[in-house]
Sequence to fold (101 residues):
Amino acid sequence: MSKNEQANRQPNPYATGPRQYNDRRVYGGTPSGVSWSEVNPDELLHFITKWCDAGNCAIFGKTSDGGALSITAIAGTDRYREWPKSGEEALAVFTALLADL
Fold:
């Protein structure tokens, strides 16, 4: 294991028994550059307001290699996961999820 890999190992606080680690992958090169700043903030706010006011949950992130945004939308026991690669794709995901309300 390289020093870089050792530096990125993180303890799992929920592990029982011997200490375990979750490995965070380190990718070389430059990520593709997709960012949440590409998403229209008014559309993002509209989605969060409508989705969460309906009693649902939304989690936003980015893939570890930087190649896509990450949207996890939870409605009751249903979970929807999408990985849009642009702001336009994220808007399409928001539109589709809100159409199902």
In short: The mean pLDDT is 81. Helices lie at 3-7, 41-53, 87-99. The longest strand covers residues 69-75.
